[in-house]
Amino acid sequence: MTWVNIPLSTQPNQTFGAQLDGAYAQITLTTTDYGLFADVIYDGVPVALARLCLDRTDINPNRYLGLPQMLCFADLQGTTDPVAAGFGTRYLLLYGTPP
User: Fold this and answer.
1) Could you give the CA distance from residue 86 to residue 67 in angstroms, rounded to a whole number?
2) pLDDT tens digits for 51-62?
């Protein structure tokens, strides 16, 4: 599998769904004074709660809970951590297997 880009709006706080490996994933992104945090519920099971989103760092560390691939943000212009203003352009939310 290659990377799949999950589309985002530029809202600092958002909840959306995506089909990942044949099951529904609900992803909630929350921006705080301490950074961007993600909650991921995959096929009805919480697989990541209040995970700090850092550049190229896996949000899904517990694959045994069901979500089988890496989920991470990638900065296309450097190595800074994601912020909402750059969602979809500078910062991509990617799912899959790294090359």
Assistant:
1) 26
2) 999 999 999 988
